[in-house]
Amino acid sequence: VLFDENGKGYVVDVNPRVTGSMPALMTSVAVQSLYKFDVGMFRKSTKWIYPGTKEELLSFADSWNAQNSEYGHVVIYSVFEKSRKSTQLNIGAWGKTAEDVNAILALFCTAGEAGRV
Fold first, then answer.
1. Whole-angstrom distance, CA of residue 25 vs CA of residue 116
2. Dihedral, CA of residue 26, residue 29, residue 31 and residue 32, to nearest 10
3. Which residue from 16, 24, 68, 99 has the highest number of Cβ atoms inside 10 Å of its Cβ?
4. For residues 17 and 54, is the Cβ–Cβ distance under 8 A?
5. Which secondary-structure segment (H or E) carries 58?
6. How would you label 10-45 residue by residue, b for 16+ Cβ within 10 Å and e otherwise?
């Protein structure tokens, strides 16, 4: 309970929590400002699959970012390697247009069936 200068009480439930989209929200302004991209998208769900290991995914993201800094940028927020051929991921991508960003995201993940790969 918080009290104002007149002694009136207010019930406040702060209940802060970090959700799956919070990292994307926290980094989007910085990434857009740093790289000057107008459009950003975030994919989070157990259905987004990279067809390889987490090491392959992270290596691909690093090399793609280095070679395509004028075109777009990706950030891998979290991964879970289900098998050597299936890594679930939460990913953000930025670019100049929505079409560019969708094309970038398509390089890194496809929609699989949640729980099955």
1. 29
2. 150
3. 24
4. no
5. helix 54-67
6. eeeeeeeeeeeeebbeebbeebeeebebebbbbbbe
The separation between the first and the last C-alpha atoms of the chain, rounded to the nearest angstrom, is: 49
**Taking Cα atoms as reference points, which of 45, 73, 46, 48 lies closest to residue 61?**
73
So what's the pLDDT on residue 115? Answer: 42
Q: CA–CA separation, 98 vs 67, rounded Å?
A: 20
Structure tokens at 101: 């960003």
CB atoms within 10 A of CB 51: 15
- What confidence tens digit (pLDDT) does each residue in 62-81 have? 999 999 999 999 999 989 99
